[in-house]
Amino acid sequence: MSAAPAATPARAPREAARPARTAHRPARSRSGLAALLVAAALLLVPALPAGAQRTRLRMAVLSFPAISTFVAQIIREAGLDRPHGLEVEAVPFATISAYYAAIATGEVDTLAGGPNVLQRMRLERVPVQAVATLVRPSDLVLITRHPEVRSVLDLRGKTLAADMGSQQFQLLAIYTRWKGMDLRREVTIVQAPFPLARAQLAAGRVDAAMLIEPVATLAMRDSPAYRIIFNGRRAWREMTGTDGWELIVWMREDVIRRSPALVPAALRMFTDFQRYVRTNLDEADRIVARTTGLPPGAFKESVLYRRLHFEVSPAWGRERAALEQMFRLAVEAGVIERLPDAGWLYQP
Q1: pLDDT < 50 positions in the chain
Q2: Which residues of 164-200 are buried (b: 16+ CB within 10 A; e: fewer)?
């Protein structure tokens, strides 16, 4: 995506600027406590001695500014992979469909992907497993310029630019079915990756666009008439009382079998990434701007306003129930045919 100029200081989108509410935490069972203890033990493993051989980890990223790209570039530029014996290689893809296809074919070892996309790919016998949580859906928004469109339900009979292969579209489809609307039948969907969806909205070719950060922040600078009519995290909370997940860390099963120590090392690396963004946000913003072409300050603003909310924890821990709930709701909404097999989850 060609990044828009920084222009004037951004006015935070009204919907997303409110502080995110504290996630619902289910009561911890003995199994949940055991999982937390295992996770804590994994995180306490000492760093690799200097000069020791490192394991290459091929990670898919999108070739336009996107969350996966930010994560990989910050990890690489800040050297967060090396203390854990890893060497992350960022492998770029131009479309989301190619991005997911790469882990199916073995072109990459890991990626940040949607829980319901993982569910669908497990049903297609793609050997991938969830290993960690990563991003809440607080950055997912629908933007329109039409004042008469006040909610997603007002899009009946209108056009929406969206990437139908994305986790964000799965989440939106589940929510609209819960609200009594069949998104695919009642709305004309114009297939468009996020940067193109922004362009379609700016050109007036669609009535609304489904966007994520940082494209959403940049789009809100395009026109003072733009309004946010949907937020992924709020929608999921309205439906379930929990916050849900937009992206989690996947890894191929054969890669895990070859290198059993890879998952604990990757979990420590992503935990360090989360800590780095919290404690070195200015430097993280500079890395993102320098390596992706995003205007300086855009990544920092997204994090400060919690439109980008990173939370790393083991997938087999206390968030397992939230992920399984996402699978069940996708089936109940008719978005995905059935639940995945038990192998969807990595368990130490």
Answers
A1: 1-29, 31-32
A2: bbbbbbbbbbbbbbbeebebeeebebbebbbbbbbbb
196/200 Cα distance (integer angstroms): 6
279-317 tens-digit pLDDT: 999 999 999 999 998 999 999 999 998 889 999 999 999
Q: Which helix (H) or strand (E) holds 210?
A: strand 208-211
- CA torsion sign for 3, 208, 305, 243 is negative
Tens-digit pLDDT profile for residues 148-178: 999 999 999 999 999 998 999 999 999 999 9
Contact (Cβ atoms closer than 8 angstroms) between residue 251 and residue 110: yes
Amino acid identity, position 48: L
Sort strands 208-211 and 141-144 into parallel, antiparallel or unpaired: antiparallel
The DSSP string of 32-96 is HHHHHHHHHHHHTSPPPPTT---EEEEEEEESSS-HHHHHHHHHHHTT-SGGGTEEEEEEEESSH
Under 8 Å between Cβ of 262 and 54: no
Which residue, among 149, 165, 139, 153, has the nearest Cα to 201 in the 3D structure?
149
Residue with tokens 């760093």: 47
Where helices occur in the chain by DSSP H, the ranges are 14-17, 30-43, 67-77, 96-105, 115-123, 167-178, 183-186, 194-202, 215-220, 232-240, 253-258, 262-279, 281-292, 298-304, 320-332
The candidate with the shortest Cα–Cα distance to 152, out of 184, 185, 175, is: 175
